[in-house]
Protein: Cyclic nucleotide-binding domain-containing protein
Organism: Alosa alosa
Amino acid sequence: MITVYWATTTMTNVGYGDIVPSTMTEKMVAAMVGLIGLFIFNYIVSQIYATLSSKNAARVTFQNLLSSVTLFMEHQNLSLSLQKRVRDYMSLLWSSYQGEAYPGGPYLMHDLPTELQQIVLMKERGQLLSKIPFFEQAGPAFIRDIASVSVMYFFPRGEIIQYSDTITRELFCVHRGICQILTDDLSDIVALYGEGMCFGEVGFMFGKQAVVTVRAKTHCEILSIDFEKMKPVLERYPAMKRQIEMLQNKTDYYNQIVDAVEGMMRSKHRPIEEDVTQIRRKDAAFAYEGRRYAKKSKCYVEDFGNFPIYAGTEEETIEERLLKLSKTRMIPRKPRTYLEHMKEFFFRTFPSFILMRNAILPSNTTYIRWEFFRICVAIAISTFSLLLFSFLHKERWMWIILYNLEGFCWIDIYIRMHVAFYKDNCLQVETLETAKHYLKTSFLLDFISCFPWEIIGLMYFNINTIALWDTRPEILHIFAYLRVPHILQLYRVPLAFSFYQSEITTEKTAVTFLKFFLYTAMFLHFCTCIVFAIVCPPADLTGDPTIYLLPLGKHNCSRLSWVNHLDYSFDVVYENVTFTQLYAISLYYATTTLCGIGYGDIHPYLTSMRIAMIFIMVAGALYIGFLSGTVTSILANADAPRAAFTDKEDIIKLFLKSQKVTGQLYDSILSFYTFRWIRTKGVNQDVVFEYLPSSLLGDVSTIIYADVIAKAFGLKVKRKQRQELVTQHLSPLERKLSGKLGQPFFQEVLKKESVEQLETDAGFIRLLARQIRPCHYRAGDIICKRNEYGAEMYFIDKGEVDVLSIDESSVMITLKAGQHFGEGSLLFSEPRATTIRAGSNCDLFTLSKTSLDEAIIYYPKIYKEIKKAAERKQVELIQNSISSKKKKMGKDKEFSSDDTGYIKFYKDIMEEDHKKNYNKPTYRGCFLLDSFSNFWMHLLKFHNSTMDPVNPIRIIYQYTSCLFIVIFFWSITFMPITFNLSQNLFTMAMVIEYILLIEILFKFHVAYYDEEGTYISGYKSASRNYLFGKMGYFFDIVASFPSGLIVLSLIGTIHAETYFAFIVKIRLLHLPKILSALIFMREEEKSISTNLLVIRIIKYLVQGVLFVHITALICVLYAENTDRFRGDIEASYFVKKYMYGAYWTLATYTTTGFGDFRPRNFGEMLFTIFLMIIAKMHVIYNMGVLSSSQTNKQSLQVAFEEKLQAVTAYMIDTNIPSNLYNRVTHFYNYIWTRTKGIRSEVLFQDIPHCMKTDIFSRICIHLLKKQQLFAHLSETFLHHLVSKMYLISYTAETLKELGLLRLQQHRLACYSSPGKKAPEAVCEEAEEGQAPRRPGQASCQPNSPQPYHPFSWQMYDHWTTKWITYDC
């Protein structure tokens, strides 16, 4: 056992020093054991980290998505009820899929083989699908394929599944739960849909508007079948396709569905006048009517005329639930025999007499507060019970407190018998059922942990309880041990944390840190009580009860225990030692053991104590490892989005440098990604709402976009406006430059009857709003360029947009929030009239032509009208293009004085600018005046200049300033406390002080990014930001003010040394300056442009230096006040005492614990305990921070290496030849070196279209111009062409062997002949299956006339060794 004890102390790095190696062999063995223990426990920590990191990764990712959704909704000022609906749905989605899948995305088990997937889906959904009327005659194969394209949605209680008047090609089938059919205004419940029933047939079969509104009465699982996804399945089953088409062609079938719904509505016996009013209301325009509560349907509704939006429901009360149960409860059979009467009495009659009538809902606020109070009581009982059996068994007040607290435990048992619970997705509220459920689950554990087990001891000893405290304290000690089962009440604590953290909306990080703080405190308390209780067990009942080693506490400890040596180690007098001192010493012993320090002043002597310490040391090492792994995993998952974003930014930098894209375009791209990180934190907002079902997404989109849709499209829809829509009167030319039509969208192209139809159609607004997507542009970014062919329309939500002149030198018009532009390109595919640029950071909404067509296609008549208008406009554009070319033939016509279009418009502007410049005053004078004026202008220019935050000069001086601040803090605290009045040290501090004063001037000239991501570089704004910042000018000037000037008048009045000491102490007013360095490092840590690992290492080093320095100063102060700084060397000077304090702090901080310096009294012991805990927490947190940074930094490389390992393993298993194996691995290494394994089309998919066009124009437009096929095309078309191209990397050996890439049908390939210095490109056309031709065997254009087919074109750049591929 001694050997096991020594091995454990060595492997866990505790090392008390009671057993030490003496010979060289023993020392070598000890070193090997220590190294093995280091590797073992570090391996355990790494495994814990890897497990927890993978466990929490999905949750953190989903929480980041939920946070983005929440921020977006708050930014759009959505109602709290709508935000709650979204959060409730996302929480339900998390509980169902744990973030691994979502409806509409990849199937949860998508990595299974197809056959196995179909078997699983058929088992889950096959029976339900076979009951659908459309598929009753279908075979199992068809049902299996339909199950593969179906989607399962989850709806929380009260959520709307489908609105009437909305259009969706989905068929909904109730898989689990109950649904309610509501009236169109959501005010009444018409009918119920149960499991196996379907709705949505009208939209699914005919593409018409839905005829019923459906709401989830309970938690529902709805199976959805999209008709568009079902079309490929129907192509494989012609018989089913004919059957579906036959039903679609039957108008009687549609009428039957509509008549059935109308009959169901009439069954509610609504008055005829009310029906007429409802019909008239449908034909009226929308008008906001406020919020109302529908009593029958028990939900809140926000009305927009005939467009109601669900706004939440009231939770069903216990009384209402019991009333429903009383109507549906089965009448039990009357008892007949005597035994049945007894069972009826004990199991129904008597419990119903004891129990309350109503159950308690788990979501009840009062019950939640009671649970919180009960957990606090459980912690208190467990804490006091440990103190009772270890230290305070004879204290009456402790027993009284415990008995009072136990009263709450019995009350809690009675309350928990009434808590409702869910069974088969149904809330059980009958008290008899809740009591039975509690008795079957946790009643036994609660009873064991609440029952006063000392009653058994009283029955055994049969003595008077009053005399126990005076005559038999040893029996009281035994009674205290009988109360140990009360510690089991702590089981409620992890259950409470688990329940609280199960909600995805809960911020897990803060709760986790709180949980581990509580667990650490309880673990320390438990170990403190154990290390004392083991050596001081209950007294011998047959011995002399009057003789105690510790008389005050009535403890008779073992003769060889560590308690018997306290008088030597800590100057303890056994007759006077108190509970506080004993607990502090035990806590000190437990803390040194758990933290792995082990000074050696206390160590076990007894075998039983050594066994206990073995378990405590191992448990402590494992717990600290678990704590470190948890912290690391939390921080790694929290930093994962930033790491992914910075990895992508690094890859973009590598790509741009390899393609020699530099200068302003390079800086603009990097600035855009910085702006994107500030605004979105790396979350792609295009997929933010992909998780929501169509009904909920429709509500969110309608509330946000109804205003802009109504104004842009000319629909007289009125609702509660989110913002004041701007009306700006523009001239015809200004409207043309902005890409605007002469009048609102639909009024321009549709007939009056069609516009009125859309105005009264609530489904159209909801359908179109779902197609709009948000986007962000940085100030100065080009949104669209002149003559560019676009197909998007933009709505300005926030910011300003500048419409530029033709030469892009001036701003013609400024469009503000609430306006829109680009509808001409959306409707008619017009080229942009001019370049449009973001005047400030802009939040825009975009609507593409594809999305508009998807909405209009459900209105055939309107679709034909828009199509005809677009065809007319296209003819007009072609004619205008031809006429403009004819005009260019004669230069006189180009500058005709009769022109009233663009030329006259720009001539007027040029004349006005000329007049302004002509009337501008000029200065004439002597040469000296001109020179002074030029010097003054240059000086003002220099003064008004600002420095970029990423400028190397700014970075160097800021980090140097932080170093100076740390040195300054050390010097001004070291001198007054150690009384070291060194002149050199004082001079150094003075120099740093004045350097920091000069730094204030530089801070006025540092540019910055505001909260919206706008880069502010103007001197006035930058200086104002620093002047009025929270930690800006006023803080710096107060913290850096030369305080020595205050006592300057005392120079001649007092002694020089006294004055010097006085000025050293008054300089402590500069201490707040250290905050500016800490805040700077925190801000640098948030910045996306900094190296996160480096800044965190610097931050850790600074914190460590400050920690050691401050602790050493505290030691010096304590030595100064008590003159009891303990050690083998007695320090006679305060500087030496500072060095000893720093040495002891480092020994404790690094868990070395040599034992030459150790605490001796109560105050030193408490300070050491505090220091050990804080040091361990600081090390664990910072090691977690650094580990997470390094892990995330290498995550992309690890993923690529895992893929390469899988590829190599596959090639080995399939016996791939070695030469081919080497080529494949060489290719993977090559693409990792070039692009880190990410393709260019994926790399730039989230940047603005114009910026992407500029990048690829810089890379490959010169290659296009050298080809005869594209040489005659315009610059505008070539820019549009390069935006469709992407780069493919090939190694030289692959090109050498292949000569050409494999060509698909009608693929045109251009490549460079081997051995040529310049890219001598040759084109050829290859049919599918033909051998590729060699260079020079084909002309660059096909001669034989052939019909046009889509083809892919590839071109090889000899200089960059890249193949550029364009798919037409």
Q: What stands out?
A: The first strand starts at residue 151 and ends at 155. DSSP finds 51 helices and 28 strands in the chain.
